[in-house]
Amino acid sequence: MLKEERQRYIIERLHQEGKILATDLVIQLKVSEDTVRRDLNELAEAGILQRVHGGALPRAQSAPFEQREQGENSSKVAIARTAASLIHDGQVVIMDSGTTVHEIARQLPTGLHATIITNSIPVAATLATHPQIEVQVLGGKLKKDAQATIGVPVIEALRQIRADLCFLGICSLHPEIGISLPEIEEAYIKRVMIEQAAEIIAVTEAAKIGTAAPYIVGPLKALTYLVTDNTLDEQTLAPYAWQGIQVIRTSG
């Protein structure tokens, strides 16, 4: 079997099963462990999968903020609307960067009284015209492709805050790996956000669930809620609920 055929087979199996083991591939492809290892490494370098001990997991595809914001996305709006309903008057809320969290800012009712602390430039800009919300922007180095501030000043400012809620933007979520993402600097920020809030709300579309990325933010048990769309069945989401997360699926 040619290399291209083997790698196409690996990708198809990964999409079908959500996880592949190197030992299984050796038997199925009738090749050596070294050949399977090389194929997996090449696919990982191409950003197609995430290597883990003994095999591989799907890897969420990332793109610049502007590209992710383009086009209408009804599932993202539904997730944001559901998540926004979890905020109550008088709360202090950390809002992470990301397009879904930005959509939550758009969905906040005009009568809501709250304090929003964010490192997201789009979130701050959207809430600048909200009549009742106080906005605190975390200053630091601007990461242009994420439209968010990062660095030690952001981390130090977060450590001075005790928030009621944190809306966490998710790149990858997996029952075994936990919360992960492709950028180490953003991982540092998200870890501190989790530490400084009483309840953590992960907001993500179904495509990012069951995937993994190189840098670990934390375990699933760090999450209080997972708000996602209605395209995943209860069996797929069961491993998240088993770890104590309240899973909320949107109705539309």
Could you walk me through the main structural features you see in this protein, from its secondary elements to its overall organization?
The mean pLDDT is 90. The chain has helices spanning 3-17, 22-29, 33-45, 65-69, 74-84, 99-107, 121-127, 152-158, 184-195, 234-242, and strands spanning 20-21, 49-52, 55-58, 92-95, 114-118, 133-137, 141-143, 148-150, 163-169, 172-174, 178-181, 197-203, 215-218, 225-228, 246-249. The chain contains ten helices and 15 strands. The radius of gyration is 19 Å and the shape is elongated. It folds into two domains: 3-58, Orthogonal Bundle (Arc Repressor Mutant, subunit A); 65-249, Rossmann fold, CATH 3.40.50. Strand 5 (114-118), helix 7 and strand 6 form a beta-alpha-beta unit.
